[in-house]
Design brief:
Elements (H helix, E strand, L loop, with lengths): L2 H15 L3 E2 L8 E13 L4 E9 L4 E3 L1 H13 L3 E6 L2 H16 L5 H4 L8 E9 L8 E3 L6 E3 L1 H13 L3 E6 L2 H15 L9 H13 L4 E6 L8 E10 L9 E10 L5 E9 L16 E10 L6 E11 L4 E3 L3 E4 L2
Antiparallel strand pairs: 1-13, 2-3, 2-4, 2-5, 6-7, 6-8, 6-9, 10-11, 11-14, 12-13, 12-15, 15-16, 15-17
Helix pairs in contact: 2-6
């Protein structure tokens, strides 16, 4: 089966069913990234153009999220695509190896990639770079770029095959939130609003939406035990009021199960969108709002119980991103 079709299938299935994993808190708010350079060539076998990775920066840069955004924007002006941001240096180094492996068909990364290729699900998305001549800035064509999930093997296949369709896969991320925020930065810095200016009307609309977040009602209902003894399932109910969900805005919601052991956390990510967005996430109508339910699963630990759920969320369009106040619900 074509890997691009698999990519779409994984995206649709995992976002609706929920993916969870145990991750530590990131207290220091330091992020990591690196850059790559790409080119375009004519492929004689297919008779079409394809992309290729012709250089991967060896240095891992670090700093605040704002510094990552600045580095990304400056990089595009000189033909560099900054990949990130990652919450851990080791994740950036692993991603760096993927692009190196794809770019030069090197076997040096092979030993690193083979172990435990299927033990964790990662998230990633596609972009479509538009490459000019010489040192012209890199821009991106706006395409549906819903976050998808897969193993490291699947990401490696997708990044390789995507190049033949002039698409560049960005990832892989273990953190769904950073995957979505990375996608936002590619759109803000490289698509329609490359000059950094925004629409005042749209700015007001997204600001008003952020103020109405308090009116969204959230419930978590525990479901009957399943055969899986290492996880527990809840029914997540989100009731959106009318006139809440702006038509051209995304909302990402991160649900974190909080345990009696504060060092443990199991989380999942969900992204919704307004009527006019083309990314194929679940759509929330502006006029009617409505009740939407999702089955969500979290890991169980023998030494710790779930005490409650923390909902962290942000909304964004092509030019602005607003972090919303977190919501906490006690476990029942």
């Amino acid at each position: 089966m074509n890997k691009l079709i698999i990519f779409i299938f994984l995206s649709l299935w995992h976002t609706n069913s929920g993916i969870s994993e145990s991750i530590p808190y990131n207290h220091d708010n330091v992020y990591y990234w690196f850059y790559i350079k790409i080119g375009k060539m004519f492929d004689k076998e297919t008779g079409t153009n394809r992309l290729f990775v012709n250089k991967v920066g060896s240095q891992i840069e670090s700093g605040s999220y704002g510094e990552f955004v600045k580095s990304h924007k400056i990089g595009l002006k000189v033909g560099k695509i900054v990949i990130g941001a990652y919450s851990e240096k080791s994740q950036a180094q692993k991603s760096q190896l993927f692009y190196t492996y794809v770019g030069i068909e090197s076997t040096s990364a092979d030993k690193f990639l083979k172990p435990n290729m299927n033990d964790t699900l990662y998230c990633f998305y596609y972009t479509r770079p538009v490459i000019g001549d010489g040192l012209q800035p890199i821009i991106f064509q706006h395409i549906p770029a819903r976050i998808a999930y897969g193993t490291q093997n699947e990401f490696l296949d997708l990044i390789t095959e995507g190049l033949y369709y002039e698409k560049l896969a960005i990832g892989p991320f273990t953190d769904y939130e950073l995957g979505e925020k990375s996608k936002f930065i590619f759109r803000k810095n490289g698509e329609m609003n490359i000059d950094g200016t925004g629409d005042p009307i749209k700015s007001k609309a997204i600001e008003n939406m952020s103020k109405k977040w308090i009116s969204v009602k959230i419930e978590m209902t525990k479901q009957a035990n399943t055969k899986k003894t290492n996880e527990t399932t809840y029914q997540l109910k989100i009731k959106f009021p009318s006139k809440y969900f702006v038509e051209d805005v995304f909302q990402t919601i991160i649900v974190k199960a909080m345990y009696s052991d504060s060092l443990l956390i199991s989380s999942l990510g969900l992204t919704l969108q307004g009527n006019y967005v083309m990314d194929n996430n679940p759509v929330i109508p502006f006029e009617n709002g409505g009740l939407h339910t999702y089955p969500v699963s979290f890991k169980l630990f023998k030494t710790a119980k779930i005490k409650g759920f923390l909902f962290e969320s942000f909304i964004y369009n092509n030019n602005e991103l607003i972090d919303l106040d977190p919501v906490y619900i006690m476990a029942k």
